[in-house]
Design goal:
A hairpin with a 2-residue loop joins strand 4 and strand 5. The two termini are 49 Å apart. It is built from 21 helices and 6 strands. By secondary structure, it is α/β, with parallel strands linked by helices. Among the domains are: 117 residues, 3-Layer(aba) Sandwich (Rossmann fold), CATH 3.40.50; 110 residues, no CATH class. It comes from Planctobacterium marinum. This is MAP3K TRAFs-binding domain-containing protein.
Length: 429
């Protein structure tokens, strides 16, 4: 877990701030220490730093307001240093003072780090939880008509028009990302993801203030974009260290690690590197399994775990695959309409979408239930609005066929038929 410590100071205290920063960086292994002039900071940086040190700063009304807002947030610590005295301002509004020396400062930081559960950056803008930031969450956020921030209207228009270039233009028109409000920053970041503008996501992340760069949400999405742009197993695997530094890993964090190692496995297999491929496959399974343990309801890591277990086929893998598939079936039956008959009362369930049906389709492929495969294949083709959706499902079928321990006439025939049906459906596109 890496936390951010921001030291704010005036020009007259630059030397003291530099010395303090050097000492803390030397002693604290799990902290990013940032020194900044008070005149150069803004509300976002002050509110979002995990730990904040105010060096010889008068609590002006504006600064006092920001400190007060920090105290309302769980997991934030603020220390005011004046001369040789330090006053710790806790979230509970209790104050404690101590003499400024190396031992006391380190002790303050360690106690703050151990006692506070860090908050997620997106809690400040409402109900958006990091563990639900999936493709579905991104789409919902983009469509949300209740947003009133300055970028909301042009971004909403771009989404309505499916205008990739317009989103790019909005991004390029922002001269300083860090001068935007948090709502605007997150809104733009998720819009870039929704339109698969991964290079722009990288550029935006690299332009963020270090306080925001160290936040789980932005860090995770940066890894997501970087993985999509990376073409080598080595470059992809190097992204894992960023995921491992996330303070509060979620099912999506672990699933992203699984996706990275799955890509590495695929690349190593293509390059005939059997030893590396085996290692990457094992790591992909470990990360997907960790994702399932964090959230048994998340179907994305679950179906990937089942698929990779089928491909590895080590002792016990097929039995575990069946358990995973049983869990997928139960969760989708209880939470979506994917298995419901037309006349069934489904008022409490989420309307199943293409990806729910694709998950069930792949589940039956793994079990080799031909009749059910045929039924759900027809449903997929009726729901698919874009060719890439079916192509993604076809790629998963090919993966199973390529790496299964035994050849399957059923699967080979299904892949050929699936490709022919895609060609026929989009022949006029």
């Amino acid at each position: 877990m890496v936390t951010t410590l921001l030291i704010l100071h005036s020009e007259n205290d630059t030397e003291q701030a530099t010395q303090l920063s050097a000492m803390l960086e030397c002693k604290l292994q799990n902290a990013v220490v940032i020194t900044e002039l008070m005149s150069d900071s803004n509300d976002i940086q002050i509110k979002h730093a995990d730990d904040l040190i105010l060096l010889n700063q008068n609590l002006t009304p504006a600064l006092a307001r920001l400190v007060g807002e920090r105290q309302k947030l769980p997991g934030t610590s603020t220390l005011s240093i004046t001369g040789n005295s330090a006053t710790s301002l806790s979230s509970s509004a209790n104050e404690s003072s101590f003499e400024v020396n190396e031992s006391n400062l380190i002790n303050w930081f360690v106690q703050s780090d151990n006692s506070n559960s860090r908050y997620d950056v997106d809690r400040l803008i409402g109900k958006w939880d990091l563990d639900l930031l999936s493709h579905l969450k991104t789409d919902i956020f983009i469509r949300d008509t209740n947003r009133t921030n300055p970028l909301a209207e042009p971004l909403r228009a771009a989404v309505a028009e499916n205008d990739n270039a317009k989103v790019q233009s909005i991004f390029q028109s922002v001269s300083d990302i860090n001068q935007l409000k948090l709502e605007d920053i997150l809104d733009l970041y998720l819009s870039l993801r929704a339109f698969k503008l991964y290079e722009e996501m990288q550029l935006m992340y690299e332009s963020l203030h270090p306080v925001l760069q160290n936040k789980d949400l932005f860090k995770e999405q940066y890894v997501f974009a970087s993985n999509r742009l990376s073409n080598s197993a080595r470059a992809k695997a190097a992204l894992i260290k960023h995921l491992e530094s996330i303070a509060s890993p979620t099912a999506e964090t672990k699933a992203l690690g699984g996706r990275i190692y799955k890509d590495c496995w695929h690349l190593a297999s293509k390059n005939k590197s059997a030893s590396s491929a085996k290692q990457y496959l094992n790591l992909a399974i470990d990360w997907y399994q960790a994702a399932c343990q964090l959230d048994t309801r998340d179907m994305y890591p679950a179906i990937n775990l089942a698929t990779l277990l089928k491909c590895r086929n080590a002792p016990g893998d097929i039995a575990l695959m069946r358990d995973v598939l049983d869990n997928i079936r139960y969760n989708l039956r209880m939470s979506t309409t994917v298995f419901d008959q037309p006349q069934a009362d489904s008022s409490l369930k989420r309307q199943a979408d293409y990806w729910d049906y694709a998950t069930v389709f792949e589940m039956y492929v793994l079990r080799e239930h031909a009749d059910n495969v045929s039924t759900f294949k027809a449903k997929l083709f009726s729901l698919a609005t874009e060719q890439w959706m079916l192509a993604t499902t076809l790629n998963n079928l090919t993966l199973i066929d390529d790496y299964s321990s035994r050849s399957s006439v059923f699967l080979t025939s299904l892949i050929e038929e699936f490709q022919q049906d895609i060609d026929a459906k989009f022949a006029q596109s």
